[in-house]
Amino acid sequence: MNAHLAEISRAVDPGAHAVQILDGAGWHVAADLVVPDNFTLLTLPSHAPELNPVENVWQFLRENWLGDRIFDSYEDILDQCCEAWNKLVAQPWMIMSLGLREWAYRL
Q1: pLDDT, tens digit (0-9, with 9 covering 90-100), for 1-26
Q2: Domain Tc1-like transposase DDE: where (predicted)?
Q3: Is the pTM of this model over 0.85?
């Protein structure tokens, strides 16, 4: 996570400040986490999936291509996950609908 934050920090324009929204994963809040000066971490409240649309993406992947199965090997896991991801990204309208929050926009 430290390497990830450092890499993003390098891409932030001089004088700008970045905000990254995170869920409560352990590595997002580790005591030894080094947050760059041009960066703020905003942790979502627990049990609030309506604020974290990616949870709907993971659920969709599990329900449609990855759930209720036994994988033959680590390589099989990687292959099946890549195949599922490629199917999803080929459907940008699906990604948009999974992330849509009516309360977050106005017509």
Answers
A1: 899 999 999 999 999 999 988 887 77
A2: 3-77
A3: no
